[in-house]
């Protein structure tokens, strides 16, 4: 079913046979999720192996979507779909039993146990259906009203097990109760079947609980149905009324995608500015009242955009390579089934060939579009097009939610209550409402139109809207003359501190941190906020940034302009490398905070901001915003009730990174005050390196690290933050340790000691080398290549374009964190070998072809570039940090004196030695060249 041909064929047969709900065993779809087509919805549950094995799915007609209550994927053999019906709900369990081979006998018990667990969560009085491929033969013979008298064949052991299951759960086997000819009973035809040797069995069944036995009006197989499968579908007719779930009325959403078309953009631009200009004239004659101004502005923006864009029809191009000719051949093949097997096979072969040609033509058309975009140098839309072609068509997500007790939340109501309880507990706090503010006379200046224009222009497009439903795209359509109303509104709010109600409400959407996340704490809660509020907060951010930045130490690399993960990685790697050279052991602790952003205490945050000298107006806005905020959690397009948010900084708010940094700075300033522990460079102790909440503690001795960690743990607790001691790790980096190292103990718990750890996406180890990291990077890049192989190996695309795609999507994965790498000769050879592997795969060259690397490079019309890219980026990075005073800590780490003595013998290859060797310069000459952009550019030019 994972192939487009099979999927389209199934939909065609479903429509022809007028099937409303279709269960599919061995669907072979990877992961779990929902796939939407023009006429159907497919709910599927599978595994993530590369062979597309097993899997179950249920397809329903689109008009039944409103009746679906819940979808519960259990495994790649069992899933549940619940439908609202009258007089009771329908619960459909789709199954796929292990095959009858002896190797799969051990899987039968877990299979039935999974079904039992699902049934235990269902109400006995509801209509419960279990259907699918049971790989069991029940055979002929009545069994106490469980099995009818019209089965087929002889019962086997699997059949006894199925009958026992039906007796335990009061099910009846529906397709054994209707007197039908054998051709309407058998469900599976063996590959060994011939007219002379008939091998047909009844191994697929539809089970229904005894109470609803009489609701089944018929159940029979359709041997004429054809999807080129060895199974025939069982179709049961059931008399029951489905009930439509009445969803709350939704306001029409503003379709900003229409603004990509010039006509739509011009039409909305004219209408919006006309309406806002009229409102602006009215408001200028009225006294200041932020609530009234905001309500009127919101109404005009939303109503005008909705009215104009809803009246514009944009024809969407349907992208599908299936043609009418192929569908006609599928129909012809179906008519030949059970009539002429040879002609059937011939037509099937023709279908496969036609599909290949049609798909090649479709791929060629897509490639031509990519080529045209490349010729126009429109790389944004080019890469977007590639993602559209190569991206997953299915929403591959985990849909199972467990409550606090580990029970599955089945209904939408249970999910809403589970999320509501979790969010209430997560953001509940006993904060003080009496916070000492600073001098009221210390107010900020009026907000200017220039600030508003800059904030609107810098706002990002394509973001989900908040409760006010105003996207930033339509704010950007306003002319400068019509921004006066926003300037006045912002100043009214800024001066009074009264924030509109819409700005205090946000919607939480949940994003899983890991695959197959099932508990609430395995998700991130991202706030969807008003875009107008984001513009306002951008102005506040720009005003307070410099003051906050002046109070952040050089050891913090996260959420700061000009800093990134590469700086934190470089600082860590080079510092430990230099300590290794000087025979000095470093004791490292990788701290993991539990929900750090969600546990910031608001009263302490305001006190910190007051102490650094924020204006009264800025402080009042931040206080009122955080003290009165409420949120709702969105679950399957349904919202929970309002929840008070009493702590934490919102993930999705413009101010949050800045506020978290200053909050964390206060913790470490207090925790590390008057401490001497750390690695001493030029007499300055460096005892921590941070990237947002990812923290490393550094010490030159065990006792120092023990003291540092306990102080940080205690002070963090005073500020509401908790260190997760299970995920916190300790590592000792040194050539030799003179004596056994005791355990690091905090809160009576031992911190795990490791030999390697992942930090900011890179693997660091106690040998302080990059061999493991580079091997992992190569395999990750290889995986990225394989995911795009149908594009990178597509001969319809020019070789130069495919090489460029590889540079963008494969080599970018390979070279993450390259600025911090120290390479040995062996590592360089590995990188070069991988680059050639990519080119050979692009050209589809086998190792048996015996084509040299020189010839391969000529065929792609390129020189080997990965190693030169490494050299270039490392040299550019050296110049970058040497020319900028903000990197004073990194300059100190690279150039400062570290205590200790070198051991006899050859020194290890160092970060600087790489550059000295590659460019044949001394260390002093490198530093001199680094401060000159011209010299760096000339050195890079020599690489070519």
Automatic annotation (TrEMBL):
InterPro entries: DNA/RNA_pol_sf, Endo/exonu/phosph_ase_sf, Endo/exonuclease/phosphatase, RT_dom. Residues 492-764 form the Reverse transcriptase domain. GO terms for molecular function: catalytic activity. Coiled coil: none annotated. It holds the Pfam family Exo_endo_phos. Gene3D superfamilies: Endonuclease/exonuclease/phosphatase. One of its GO terms (biological process) is DNA biosynthetic process. This is Reverse transcriptase domain-containing protein. It comes from Heliothis virescens.
